[in-house]
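Project standup — Tuesday

K.O.: blocked on the structure for the chain from last sprint. Re-posting the sequence here as requested.
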Amino acid sequence: MRLSRFAAGLHNLLHQLDDARVGLRSLEEPIDTTAPDGDLVIRAVDATLQLQAA
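H.V.: unblocked you, prediction finished:
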Protein backbone atom coordinates (compact mmCIF):
# COMPACT_ATOMS: atom_id res chain seq x y z
CA MET A 1 0.00 0.00 0.00
CA ARG A 2 2.79 2.42 0.87
CA LEU A 3 4.57 1.85 -2.46
CA SER A 4 1.37 2.38 -4.44
CA ARG A 5 0.66 5.63 -2.57
CA PHE A 6 4.23 6.78 -3.23
CA ALA A 7 4.03 5.82 -6.90
CA ALA A 8 0.65 7.55 -7.31
CA GLY A 9 1.98 10.69 -5.62
CA LEU A 10 5.11 10.65 -7.77
CA HIS A 11 2.96 10.12 -10.86
CA ASN A 12 0.80 13.14 -10.03
CA LEU A 13 3.81 15.30 -9.18
CA LEU A 14 5.68 14.40 -12.37
CA HIS A 15 2.64 15.15 -14.54
CA GLN A 16 1.97 18.47 -12.78
CA LEU A 17 5.59 19.51 -13.25
CA ASP A 18 5.58 18.35 -16.86
CA ASP A 19 2.39 20.29 -17.58
CA ALA A 20 4.02 23.39 -16.09
CA ARG A 21 7.20 22.69 -18.10
CA VAL A 22 9.25 22.36 -14.92
CA GLY A 23 12.02 19.78 -14.74
CA LEU A 24 12.86 17.61 -11.74
CA ARG A 25 16.34 16.48 -10.74
CA SER A 26 16.68 14.33 -7.66
CA LEU A 27 19.81 14.75 -5.58
CA GLU A 28 19.64 11.21 -4.20
CA GLU A 29 17.85 9.14 -6.86
CA PRO A 30 18.61 8.72 -10.57
CA ILE A 31 15.60 10.84 -11.57
CA ASP A 32 16.20 13.68 -14.01
CA THR A 33 13.33 14.82 -16.18
CA THR A 34 15.49 17.60 -17.66
CA ALA A 35 17.73 15.12 -19.48
CA PRO A 36 17.05 14.21 -23.11
CA ASP A 37 15.50 10.92 -21.99
CA GLY A 38 13.68 12.51 -19.05
CA ASP A 39 10.21 11.58 -20.25
CA LEU A 40 11.26 7.95 -19.82
CA VAL A 41 11.10 8.52 -16.06
CA ILE A 42 7.49 9.60 -16.35
CA ARG A 43 6.63 6.66 -18.61
CA ALA A 44 8.34 4.22 -16.23
CA VAL A 45 6.26 5.50 -13.30
CA ASP A 46 3.12 5.27 -15.45
CA ALA A 47 3.97 1.69 -16.44
CA THR A 48 4.63 0.73 -12.82
CA LEU A 49 1.22 2.03 -11.77
CA GLN A 50 -0.46 0.16 -14.61
CA LEU A 51 1.23 -3.09 -13.57
CA GLN A 52 0.15 -2.59 -9.95
CA ALA A 53 -3.44 -1.99 -11.03
CA ALA A 54 -3.54 -5.23 -13.03
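K.O.: great, moving the ticket to review. The two ends are 14 Å apart (CA to CA). The longest helix spans residues 2-19.
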